[in-house]
Amino acid sequence: MEIIKGRRAVRNFLDKEIAGKDLEVILEAGIWAPSGSNIQPWEFILVDDPVLVKKIKLVSPGLYGLPRALIVLCVNRKRCEKGGKLGENMAVMDVSMAAQNMMLMAYSLGIGSCPIVSFNKLALKQLLDIPEHVEPLLIISLGYPTEWPQPPSRRPLEEVVHVNGYGEPFKR
Ligand SMILES: Cc1cc2nc3c(=O)[nH]c(=O)nc-3n(C[C@H](O)[C@H](O)[C@H](O)COP(=O)(O)O)c2cc1C
Questions:
Q1: In contact, 138 and 73? CB cutoff 8 Å
Q2: Rounded to the nearest whole angstrom, what is the distance from the C-alpha of residue 82 to the centroid of ligand 1?
Q3: Structural domain boundaries in the chain
Q4: Does residue 8's CB lie within 6 angstroms of at least one atom of ligand 1?
Q5: Cβ of 62 less than 6 Å from ligand 1
Q6: Which residue of 57, 100, 120, 126 has the fewest CB atoms within a 10 Å radius of its CB?
Q7: Residues 99, 15, 66, 154: what is their CA dihedral angle, to the nearest 10 degrees?
Q8: With bands split at pLDDT 50, 70 and 90, how would you rate the model's confidence at 104?
Q9: Predicted confidence band at 12 (pLDDT cuts at 50, 70, 90)?
Q10: Is the CB of 27 inside a 6 Å radius of any atom of ligand 1?
């Protein structure tokens, strides 16, 4: 629970390198996420070249600060086909689960992260030579934080949880 609650969307980073081994562990956390029918429709693109990071920042309005590395989480549409008509929807869920695994692993290593959906897909595909059938869904920025932000509030369980039917209150 400490790791789940302590992770924050980090948008200010120190100019400090992330060890290759740590990046590997973060990526590995991604492939151990669950996926519908175990299709594993994801492709992850690690960007650790500072010049490329800056170029991607230029086409990503939602990317704040100057992270040391990025992971671009993509869906391989060819792999999705195995999931039938649920395939495309499942793939979004699969990639999201991989993303959360990576961000929690990063936090457990003291590394800050931020999920980013606000980026120019076409420009990103060009910058990273991403083929037609592979779609980037989410960028995760990574870096040591200048500070850990205060947690934004959460809707309470009483408001979010319904018991045995919608509208039936949850009591602690
Ligand atoms: C699907 C998704 C997309 C997001 N896109 C962006 C983004 O483009 N830029 C950004 O700075 N933060 C983005 N965030 C981060 C959220 O703003 C952040 O998670 C939320 O405010 C809660 O803060 P916390 O993660 O520190 O708990 C995104 C989060 C999610 C889950």
A1: yes
A2: 30
A3: 2-160
A4: yes
A5: yes
A6: 126
A7: 50
A8: very high
A9: very high
A10: no
